[in-house]
Amino acid sequence: MQLSEKVRAIVALMRLPYILMLDFLCVLFIVTFQRGFYNAGLVGLAVLTVSVITAGGAAINDCFDRDSDVLTHPERPVASHKISPAGAAQFSALMFLVGLGTSFAINSVAFGIVAVNVVLFIVYPRVIKRFSGFLSNLVMGYLGATIALFAGAVVFQTINVNSLSFVGLIAGGAIGLNVLKDVLTLEGDLEIGYPTLAATHGVRIAAIVGALFLLLSATTSPVPFFVGVVGVVYLFAISVWSAMVVVTALPLLIAPDAKNVQRRVIIFTRSFPYLAAFACVVYALSAAVWGIA
Q: Sorting pLDDT into bands at 50, 70 and 90, what band is 3?
């Protein structure tokens, strides 16, 4: 394999777009919690930690999921034999070690959050995903919400109401989307034997549960404003997310079938990067002009 192909395979293994999104969210949370941008070195350590831990988690997931990915995600580097399972595992171990080191340099609470995440990233594809599909959805929701908890730990050196106020917003969205995406991979999951909610209780139940968790994300999205973490400008930005979630979730409660799930998830995933970027830019610019408070 040529060097350029190897680099492209590693970038695909890392899920670079997802890393960039989480890095941006990490910085945005830190700036929000600090009410400004201070200590660029500390922010850099936080971004590096998020990047390598995310890359390690993606690599170990591909390593363990290589058999199912042949059916559901054949384009992934391990499933397509562009990177060996051993190579993915070694890359993941290196990323985790770097992330543990950088988080330890931040503070003990940040290190604790990262250490728990590393354990979950390893146990998730090997044990949890094969034991319970819905439990794995909950774990993914927690892992998503830790971006706010980690950013809070970087700023406050603890987990407090500021970072916890974002948990419902992030975890609800992550859980809902993961439940719905399991509907799209139902055929492959049944063949491999993954006990997802759709596989064990049917598409209708999975669609309804996924939609309800999305609505939980929308209904809890104003919590950071009510506890005083953010100001009014946040409500303008988060309304974009809430509107997108409601438009996706409500039709699924009315018609919870596989075709509707597929249609709504495709629309959501295609529009999400643009709407999320727009919402973040609106929030960042508004905060810069009028202040976060």
A: low
